[in-house]
Amino acid sequence: MTEVRVPTLGESVTEATVATWFKKPGDTVAQDEMLCELETDKVTVEVPSPMAGTLSEIVAGEGDTVGVDALLAQISEGGEAAAPTPKADAPKAELAPAPAAPSGGDEMDIMVPTLGESVTEATVSTWFKKPGEAFEADEMLCELETDKVSVEVPAPAAGVMTKLLADEGATVEAGGKLAVMSTDASAAPAPAAAPAAAATATSTGKDVEDAPSAKKLMAENNLSSGDVQGTGKDGRVMKEDVLKTLAAPAPATVQAAPPRAPVAADQASREERVKMTRLRQTIARRLKDSQNTAAMLTTYNEVDMTEVMALRNEYKDLFLKKHGVKLGFMSFFTKACIHALNEVPEVNAEIDGTDVVYKNYVNMGIAAGTPTGLVVPVINDADQMSFAGIEKAIGAMGAKARDGKLSMAEMQGGTFTISNGGVYGSLMSSPILNPPQSGILGMHKIQDRPMAMNGEVVIRPMMYLALSYDHRIVDGKGAVTFLVRVKEALEDPRRLLMDL
């Protein structure tokens, strides 16, 4: 047996996602023939076969996250393979490696998986398989959307989709039935599968499978493969191709002016009504509930970022070399907030009925914008972490947020939140509380401004800070003190090292 392992992915890149397998167990492969494609944050990496033989086992399936040098598959020489090589003209369902099924096949229910603590229902977002289509064990059948995260539903076994019990847009309960499948590959109605394949080939002009992450992003933005120029193998659409399409300005069209209709009718014809996603509905409801429940007030200050920027520039290369992660501004702000929360503990507390619950730990929420909406992953026990630990945790959570892979547990239990609107160019804003928390810090754009210092006007890189807080538990004095302590720590970062 010869092992197929994850190759070197590039400087500072430590993991990738298995996008597509071009071969299945039992397939013969030639030396240097492409076996699979891996996706990193920036590039797509093709993995060639190290030898000629038979692909005997796939260890990491499509969608799995793998590290550098992780085992992907095993290849055996000629006759060692346990699975016979499928015939070239075999139908797709016969190519899927499936466990032996009873004669005639068994029907099996596809169920809604556990959705997370206190989550009882979800919306069927996208079906990747239709009745009559064959699939392999663990292949993604559909995607569900809950209030916070997307949940992928894998196939429990190889087989054929028999019937969909919940259409896209339907609400389903945890443990409910989604569909019915058959473990007998011959149960696939040939007429149903063939037109679907023909339609795909006709609409896209190519008979290749797009990357799973690209499919998901296209579905979320109402795009089809024909709308995106693929740059992957054989014209395959990759995630970065979809992002480029979304970022490109819409082409201008020139049309002859139609006869002028009444204003209301004319405007109505140019409107589009789209149902809010469950995530967007939840964001709207929680933010409005926060405004209705908390006595929310915002206080402002500004911070001179000179010292933090100088310290970061001086040590960023050494920091990266030693810890394998870049030194960003967020770790400084996280440390500064932890320092301030120790002095003003009510900002790190919450109201429970008629009680105030003080937290003797800091679970820091880091708000992150994603294509589907705002999420707040939580870094537990951030007060016990080093700068490097915080940066690594933020990087890992940010990657999961962008890929829609955050679990409910990873977004619960926060005691304080930091929101950085500056990455989008915001100069000043008033963030809304993330209930049941009593405080949220808003960071903003760093901008050079003239400042009076020691009787002289100098140009300094300044940032406005905003603390929104629940006035029921935090007084004005506590809020102002909190912001002043954050400002002092950032303007003299040595305070953070000496706990001053």
Automatic annotation (TrEMBL):
Biased amino acid composition, Low complexity: 81-102, 251-267
Record keyword Transferase present: yes
Chain residue ranges for the region called Disordered: 79-105, 251-271
Documented EC number(s): 2.3.1.61
Superkingdom, natural source: Bacteria
Domain Lipoyl-binding: 1-76, 107-182
Record's catalysed reaction(s): N(6)-[(R)-dihydrolipoyl]-L-lysyl-[protein] + succinyl-CoA = N(6)-[(R)-S(8)-succinyldihydrolipoyl]-L-lysyl-[protein] + CoA
Protein family: Belongs to the 2-oxoacid dehydrogenase family.
UniProt xrefs under NCBIfam families: PRK05704.1, sucB
Biological role stated in the UniProt entry: E2 component of the 2-oxoglutarate dehydrogenase (OGDH) complex which catalyzes the second step in the conversion of 2-oxoglutarate to succinyl-CoA and CO(2).
The protein's name: Dihydrolipoyllysine-residue succinyltransferase component of 2-oxoglutarate dehydrogenase complex
